[in-house]
Amino acid sequence: MATDYATDRIAYIGLGANLGKRRETCLAALALLDAEPSCMVIRRSGWYETEPVGMESSNLFINAVAELRTSLPADDLMALLLKIEKQLGRRRSHGVTDRTVDLDLLYIQGVVTGYPDGFMCTTSQGVASGLPDKNKGLVVPHPAIPQRRFVLEPWAELVPDLVVEPWGMSIRAMLYALEFDGQAGDSPPSHGVLGR
Question: CATH classification of 9-186 is 3.30.70.560, yes or no?
Answer without folding.
Answer: yes
